[in-house]
Amino acid sequence: EVHLVESGGGLVQPGRSLRLSCVASGFIFDDYAMHWVRQAPGKGLEWVSGITWNSGRINYADSVKGRFTVSRDNAKNSLYLQMNSLTIADTALYFCARNQGYLDYWGQGTLVTVSS
Amino acid sequence: EIVLTQSPGTLSLSPGERATLSCRASQIVSSTYLGWYQQKPGQAPRLLIYGASSRATGIPDRFTGSASGTDFTLTISRLEPEDFAVYYCHQYGISPYTFGQGTKVGIK
Asked: Is residue A7 within 8 angstroms of chain B, CB to CB?
């Protein structure tokens, strides 16, 4: 059974950094691209970033470009999101999701709250 | 960036009724790259439809997706109590990948 478990969220001050992790199980991790999607409280879904199986192609939403860095460690079945220069607008539940083109499996998310 | 506009924002229906949800793209999106997701409060999104009209594993056949040009439709033929939720369309053909703003299907 496919499982994706995010961690690393928390309360952080504006301008600070945070690193999210997503550990995958139940499938061959390095066969798949992976994505991050976020959801601000009471709002809709916003795609954040995607990374191919070998990290050969990486994409970001304009809202995070230059501040967030996605990476993966296939040996650890893990996906990461390094978030720098955080702003209040980055407050959201962050989901990792497996890519089949569409996003077929999602984790339960980790909450990031940016507040002074 | 491809903007997906969903309508209506909210749909109030009774169990057993038919729900028709629309998603319009601001530019051409290949049907291959359009999906629909269902999200219930406190839960992650769940894939319903991919490739505009293919049902994901385990999705009942009362859920149907269709496409016509830049217009995409999700139809729920007869609403079951568990179908009351928020639905999002999603294009994954051109980066940045984008979602519609969602349609809430609520109980009348």
From this structure: no
| Other beta carbons within 10 Å of B60 | 12
Residue B21's closest CA among B63, B70, B80?
Answer: B63
CA distance A116 to chain B (A): 26
pLDDT digits (tens, 9 = 90+) for B47-73: 999 999 999 999 999 999 999 989 999
**Residue B79 confidence (pLDDT):** 97
pLDDT (tens digit per residue) in A90-113:
999 999 999 998 999 999 999 999
- Count CB neighbours of A77 within 10 A: 17
What is d(CA B6, CA A24) in angstroms, rounded to the nearest whole number?
32
* Cα B95 from Cα B107, distance rounded (Å): 35
**pLDDT value of position B30:** 87
Inspect the interface and report whether the beta carbons of A103 and B45 lie closer than 8 Å. yes
Q: Token digits for B3?
A: 């903007």
Q: Say what the alpha-carbon torsion angle B24, B29, B32, B34 is, to the nearest 10 degrees.
A: -40
Distance of CA B94 to the CA centre of its chain: 18
Cβ of residue A26 closer than 8 Å to a chain B Cβ: no
Smallest Cα distance from A3 to chain B, Å: 12
Strand ranges (E), A26-114 = 34-39, 45-51, 58-60, 68-73, 78-83, 92-100, 102-106, 110-114
In this complex, the residue of B33, B56, B97 whose CB is nearest that of residue A47 is B97
Please give the structure tokens belonging to residue A79: 């996906």
